[in-house]
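Hey, quick one: can you model this chain's 3D structure?
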Amino acid sequence: MKGARRLVVERREECGCMGFLPVEKTAACRFLGSVIPCFRSLHASPISAFLRSSMKSYQKELWFNVPTRRAFINITREVEQCLAESGIEEGLLLCNAMHITASVFINDDESGLHHDYEQWLERLAPHEPVNQYRHNGYEDNADAHLKRQIMGREVVVAVTGGKLHFGTWEQIFYGEFDGRRKKRVLVKIIGE
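Sure thing. Here's the predicted structure for all 192 residues.
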């Protein structure tokens, strides 16, 4: 291939791993010289040790078994509890539904808004007649897949000072569109 850079493999004696060196000298090669540290020495470097020691990761699954077909559940307190358990003060929190007929979203905790969502979603993707959807064969939940697509899979929230960094009135909700069985929500937090 014209213009493609060829790579050669050089065995590193100090640890036995394989490093890659360019055949031609580029500006980066001239700057770095021909020495590229091996992978093991990078993992043992003081910078790497600092990053590993300061960066934390936390993960928890929240389980829901909604007795109705559809519901909106405020899960902000459960997510805040996860953040408290993590000990993370600054970072990012991901919260996502781990099922294709459920959603996680952020909005206001106001019953009129929840009613409006229910009406709006039912107009966009009505449950009945169930035979209007090709997906519905042995199941009757095609509308739930569409509703989830509209409402979204996940939210990402900044963590500042050990708290969720929300705007005014913002809360985290679990949206169930095909309930009556156990489903899970993943909470993953990274930071320091």
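One thing worth noting: The mean pLDDT is 83.
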